[in-house]
Amino acid sequence: MLGKLTLSAIPYDVPILVGTFIGVAVIGIAVLAAVTYFKKWGYLWREWLTTVDHKKLAIMYVILGLVMLVRGFADALMMRTQLALAYAGNPGYLPPHHYDQVFSAHGTIMIFFMAMVMMQALFNFVVPLQIGARDVAFPLINSISFYMTLVSAILINVSLFVGEFSNVGWLGYPPISELQFNPGVGVDYYIWSVQISGIGTLLTGMNFLTTIIKLRAPGMKWMHIPVFTWTAFFACIMILTTFPVLTVSMALLALDRYVGMHFFTNDGGGSVMLYLNLIWSWGHPEVYILILPAFGVFSEIAATFSGKPLFGYATMVIATGIITFLGSIVWVHHFFTMGSGADVNTFFGIMTMFIAVPTGVKIFNWLFTMYKGRVRFEGPMHWIVGFMITFSIGGMTGVMMAMPAADWVIHNSLFLVAHFHNVIIGGVFFGYVAGLSYWFPKAFGFKMRDVWGKWAFRFWFVGFYLSFIPLYAVGLEGMTRRMNHYDNPNWHPWLLVACVGVFVLAAGVACQVIQFVFAAFDAINKKPDAMDLTGDNWGSGRTLEWSIPSPVPHYNFARLPVIRGLDTFHIEKELGRPAPLTELEPIHMPKYSAVGPVLGACGLVIGFALVWHIWWAVVVGLVVAFITVVHRSANLDVDFYVPVEEIRADEEAFAKRLAAAKAAE
Ligand code: HEA
Ligand code: HEM
Ligand SMILES: [Cu+2]
């Protein structure tokens, strides 16, 4: 009846897991009880869970991403404390099997469920507003993408408490991930979570690419597109070219495990190298999919806080395109040591080094944007300065490893681990946090207290160096990645410093939590100086999203903006804004729909049932999903018109707020 699932799948004997489970259960029950007590289920369902509004989906993505950040960070804390202890005779507190699960969980969750989720949050919130659109091209598919991401995050976290987590790293290399070497369910959980979320991301890529191509406001030519949207555009192209490869890799691995095929085992004619090529021809572009939108965020922030147009807009766009191209043809640098031969390695090494050129162009463009500008060092600007320093260091160590001869020595050492955290934390993470603080007032209509953001930055910046510079040192001394204890006395002091570093990072996370708590407090109390009355919270916004009220009405733009060049809003501020709206028309909008959550629930059931071989539940899930899709296709009542009175009332309220803000100046 329940396939392989029995009570023995629940890890009662692991105190850390039992404790975590109790913690999660208590928080979960408290949230459910609070929603019930305040009678908010109806509101939650109607306004949030069934929404197809890109701005609300963005907020739900952010919440998911932040929860997963804490989750992934907890794993990092465990790894760092384990390695500070597990020296010489002391085995530490995490046995090898458990430690393997911890680094696998950390890598998988940080990449798929923190970084990718935050990136989709930014796409969702910013892209339609920057191009003057009322929503994305396919709003319902957008909601389905979100639910596919959400349920795969749930599925992979369920593996902690029912069964086990995968223990084969964030990329699930065979042969160790094959059934004969890994008979447990951890790898199956990994396969189905990555599969479902990967398809969700593919849909996001398709959706936003179409949106950017088709839904730009009248008059917005290609070279009028704001830089963040350009980076989203190129990231979507990479999503469309590479995520299908991930889907295929997971499908083939599943076939190996479920029906005894041998695509990736050398017996019977398969090849491990096939998997390596497939997974890295997705995996390398993936890291550029993550970094490009971060570059986009920095471009917006640099211009806004320097009070100048972005330096070298066209070169920024071209550099992004070149990185997209080069980033797609360098994947072999992840396995220089695995026998490709000198010629192949040379090609891939040189192509990798070339990426430093367009990236360097970007760094200099940001510097020139700041040069002779009236730079205001508010919260978001801190992250960009920290980023330029940190990311450049991480990029340089990447270039070092792009030399095959050097990589033979440092491949899979902690030097590598230091490199990629250097670019991921200093680039991707700093970028997304900067974006969060930059667009937060737009989303909610009030701003966060900057001082806590600045403290968060300071702790993250210092904490990063303390945690990861030691890893360069021990990496060069020969310490390999994924080790759970060691005997070398030279490494011990470095790993103690790294352990201190992670607690400094924890202080950074704490400041971020405090910042959110204060923001909620200020919003509830309607603290006057926290409210954003003008919609142009930073006073120097240049792109369209700053021209409309904060929080943004559900239809975004009362009248589709007319584009007057690059940075239309800035031009309007210089030359005078268009006359108040007299001729308003009803706005055509999509209705909310339960299809997203229903398909999400089906995905969760199907994924869980596939892991445990509960075949009847797989069939039930598929049938319900099929009926839902057919039912939706037959439903013609999917849209409505926003009445003119509602738009006029919103516009009048906004005009009053603008006048009040002007009078207060
Ligand atoms: C956001 C993520 C991200 C980014 C942006 C990068 C960027 C780069 N990476 Fe990194 N990398 C990873 C994430 C990332 N990487 C991950 C996750 C892994 C390991 C995965 C695993 O094994 O689990 C990895 C592994 C990895 C390897 C494999 C090593 C090994 O396994 O042994 C290599 C080798 O070539 C490499 C190289 C590079 C290079 C050359 C860049 C370049 O794009 C960097 C370019 C930037 C600069 C150079 C700085 C700015 C430029 C200037 C200031 C101009 C002047 C500079 C020069 C003239 C040099 N990376
Ligand atoms: C917040 C601070 C962070 C700390 C302290 C940290 C720490 C660590 C540690 C100790 C490891 C294991 C290294 C080893 O192999 O011995 C690791 C691996 C990894 N980390 Fe992080 N990390 C952090 C943030 C992130 C972020 C933000 C991401 C991605 C978005 C990330 C992605 C990864 C990946 C992909 C791995 C490799 C997992 C594997 O070996 O399969 N980390 N990290
Ligand atoms: Cu790479």
UniProtKB/TrEMBL annotation:
The keyword Iron applies. The chain crosses the membrane at residues 16-38, 59-83, 103-127, 139-162, 189-215, 227-254, 274-298, 310-334, 346-368, 380-402, 414-434, 455-474, 494-521, 598-627. Signal peptide: none annotated. It comes from the Bacteria. The keyword Heme applies. Residues 39-564 form the Cytochrome oxidase subunit I profile domain. SUPFAM superfamilies: Cytochrome c oxidase subunit I-like. It holds the Pfam family COX1. CDD domains: Ubiquinol_Oxidase_I (cd01662). Keywords: Copper, Electron transport, Heme, Iron, Membrane, Metal-binding, Respiratory chain, Transmembrane, Transmembrane helix, Transport. PANTHER family: CYTOCHROME BO(3) UBIQUINOL OXIDASE SUBUNIT 1 (PTHR10422:SF35), CYTOCHROME C OXIDASE SUBUNIT 1 (PTHR10422). Belongs to the heme-copper respiratory oxidase family. This is Cbb3-type cytochrome c oxidase subunit I. It comes from Bombella pluederhausensis.
